[in-house]
Amino acid sequence: MTDPIVYLNGTLTPLSEAKIPVLDRGFIFGDGIYEVIPIYGRKLFRAEQHMARLFRSLAAIGITNPHTRAEWMALIEQVVREHPADDQMVYLHITRGVAKRAHAFPKESTPTVFIMTNPIVLPSAAARQSGVQCVSMEDKRWLHCEIKSISLLGNVLAAQNAAEHDAVESIQFRDGFLTEGSSSNVWIVKDGQLFGPPKDNLILEGIRYGLIEELCAACGITFSACRITHAEVFDADEVLLTSATKEVLPVSSIDGKPVGKGVPGPIYDKLYAAYQEAKAA
Predict the structure, then answer these.
(1) What mean pLDDT do residues 180-192 have?
(2) End-to-end CA distance of the chain, in Å?
(3) Phi and psi torsions of 245, nearest 5°
(4) How far apart are CA 244 and CA 118, in angstroms?
(5) What is the pTM of this model?
(6) Do residues 140 and 154 make contact, with C-beta atoms less than 8 angstroms apart?
(7) What's the whole-number mean pLDDT along residues 211-218?
(8) Which side of the chain, N or C, has fewer Cβ within a 10 Å radius?
(9) What pLDDT, in 10s, does the model give residues 17-35?
């Protein structure tokens, strides 16, 4: 297998040769942020929105942005060119850098910047046709889920919970209200209308959140952002997951109980078709 080329702190290098010091604050504290951007036909999908979220996350934790938007795009394109696949998933990882181990921010540090890409792996046709199984759980993460932090232990534990139940995703609730999955936004459909949790600190505003709003408008689907109860999720006609890798994915059961009729519904069909059109535009 060919050793993929990655970018690390100003240099393109084989992945196996990319190294960081053990005192990097990302390694020691999880002190950093990341971004994931899908690429279709070597074209970044919704690049502006991803760049805006990257800049918001850096600002939220006080890391000085090391590059302009144009510089970021040039770096990403360098890595993309080195990969043979036309459809890719680019991963950006920025930490506060290397410093003596102390919890407070160092007075001076240079951010560590790492970029890699891999072929994008999308859900199978069978998963889309039948829907996927999910499990529910209490959301035990911190209260700044709007920051795309590399400190992902809570998300890791939620993903592991799903894996241990042979499920695709854990659907999380905080104080009885829907938040999100371990790595996806969650939506419900009732009486032909789509509902999603508010864009606040309890969820990461996925780039697909804005896209779903746009697709609903284009498809004539009424959308509302509001608090969604545990009971409303289990009484929904449809439940959908969205993320860069899942795109739009139907949920057929939660905790072994069927969602609606237990098969993908008409709102999913419309949004998935519209999503594919947006990719091709």
Answers:
(1) 98
(2) 33
(3) -90, -30
(4) 13
(5) 0.95
(6) yes
(7) 97
(8) N
(9) 999 999 999 999 999 999 9
Quickly list DSSP for the chain.
----EEEETTEEEEGGG----TTBHHHHH--EEEEEEEEETTEETTHHHHHHHHHHHHHHTTPPP-S-HHHHHHHHHHHHHTS--SSEEEEEEEE--B--S-SSPPSS---EEEEEEEE--PPPHHHHHH-EEEEEEE--S-S-TTS-BS--HHHHHHHHHHHHTT-SEEEEEETTEE---SSSEEEEEETTEEEE--SSTTS---HHHHHHHHHHHHHT--EEE---BHHHHHT-SEEEEEETTTEEEEEEEETTEESTTSS--HHHHHHHHHHHHHHH-
Among all residues, which ones are annotated catalytic? 148
pLDDT given for residue 2 in this prediction: 82
Whole-number Cα distances in Å, 87 to 81, 83, 161: 12, 10, 30
Round to whole Å and give the CA distance between 128 and 250.
Answer: 7
For residue 126, report the phi and psi dihedrals to the nearest 5 degrees.
-65, -40
Please state, rounded to an integer, the average pLDDT across all residues of the chain.
97
Spatial CB neighbours of 169, under 8 Å, sequence gap ≥ 6: 132, 134, 135, 159, 162, 181, 182, 183, 184, 186, 241, 251
Report pLDDT for 281.
Answer: 87
Q: How confident is the model at residue 1, as a pLDDT?
A: 52
Q: Please report which confidence band the pLDDT of residue 60 belongs to, taking 50, 70 and 90 as the band edges.
A: very high
